[in-house]
Amino acid sequence: FQATVEEGVVGVIVNLTVEDKDDPTTGAWRAAYTIINGNPGQSFEIHTNPQTNEGMLSVVKPLDYEISAFHTLLIKVENEDPLVPDVSYGPSSTATVHITVLDVNEGPVFYPDPMMVTRRENISVGSVLLTVNATDPDSLQHQTIRYSVYKDPAGWLNINPINGTVDTTAVLDRESPFVHNSVYTALFLAIDSGNPPATGTGTLLITLEDVNDNAPFIYPTVAEVCDDAKNLSVVILGASDKDLHPNTDPFKFEIHKQTVPDKVWKISKINNTHALVSLLQNLNKANYNLPIVVTDSGKPPMTNITDLRVQVCSCRNSRVDCNAAGALHLSVPSLLLLCLFSLACL
Questions:
Q1: CATH class for domain 217-344?
Q2: Pairing assessment for the beta strands 252-255 and 286-295 based on DSSP bridges
Q3: Does domain 109-209 have CATH number 2.60.40.60?
Q4: Could you tell me which residues come within 8 angstroms of residue 32 by beta carbon, excluding any fewer than 6 positions away?
Q5: Which spans are transmembrane here (predicted)?
Q6: CATH number 3.40.50.2300 is the correct assignment for the domain at 2-102
């Protein structure tokens, strides 16, 4: 028997026929096939077709032309029922199958895959990350390989098509929405010179180390307080930072001292991430912009100044009325001038 099969393909490759004169409805007719030689890698299996009694020889593990282009199997066939005494199987109960493996142009393979590198974010544009390596399984064809970028969601990377060197075309940002759990994923292609060409895909995982490149920010940025409040606590501020420790908390909270009257506002630390803003005296109904300075613990630290908009409202009979406050808007410098004017009139 002869059979041909393309490398990398599984399935039935040939049917072996037998002749048996016994009753087809009995086990004395039904055939049982066994591969007795030539199958050390268990790449082949044979099963009986119950309708035709043929042996269906199949490839169950893909064959590799570059490893072996030919295989020879020795197959034995017997009946399901044992033979009667003094009858034995002759030479015709075995068959040789010659299998030819056809070469197929296979895509190049990256090694390792995935490829992994670690770099600090914000490294210089043009920095080399690595040189990828893909090999062609079709070693007998002596093909050349060219590389290209397949998926680069943020558009950060370039690859040399000849030697596979990967460098950066933009600043790598760990806080980018294209980065997940500090890892950026890109895909590359290796394309051989076959006809038609075959392609392999490789994955690059870039772990980005954090640098302190984000200033913290406060929340909320709006608060309300009653004009006759006995409890002069205004709001609890929180701070957050897109960076990672140690470039985040503990945060330092301050009121911008150059623009704020001393004895009007106070800010007190609660914990590493929160602070309490309080009034030291009652204020008239108005909107006040209080500049809050928040600084992270990075080296060097990053600072952000954000206006906290405080509405001093009228509170009567458990009802809060901020309409009057909305009609009068005072920045902190205006508040300072107002306080100085009031003192001058005394």
A1: mainly beta
A2: antiparallel
A3: yes
A4: 48, 77, 78, 79, 80
A5: none
A6: no
For 170-194, letters b (16+ CB in 10 Å) and e give eebbbebeebeeeebebebbbbbeb
Kindly report the number of other CB atoms within 10 A of residue 320's CB atom: 13
Tokens encoding 310: 């405080």
Sign of CA dihedral 205, 208, 214, 220: positive
Q: What phi, psi does 49 have (nearest 5°)?
A: -80, 115
| Assigned token pair, 98 | 């010659």
H or E segment and range at residue 217: strand 217-219
The pLDDT tens digits along the chain (346 residues) read 999 999 999 999 999 998 877 767 776 788 989 999 999 999 999 999 999 999 999 999 999 998 999 999 999 998 877 765 666 565 568 999 999 999 899 999 999 999 999 999 999 999 999 999 999 988 777 889 999 999 999 999 999 999 999 999 999 999 999 999 999 999 999 999 988 999 999 999 999 999 999 999 999 999 999 888 777 899 999 999 999 999 999 999 999 876 666 678 999 999 999 999 999 888 888 999 999 999 999 999 999 999 999 999 988 776 777 875 554 444 444 444 444 334 343 4
Evaluate whether 55 touches 18 at the Cβ level (below 8 Å): yes
Instruction: List, by residue range, all CATH 2.60.40.60 domains of the chain.
Output: 2-102, 109-209, 217-344
Residues 54 and 13: their CA atoms lie apart, in Å, by 13
Residue count (the chain):
346
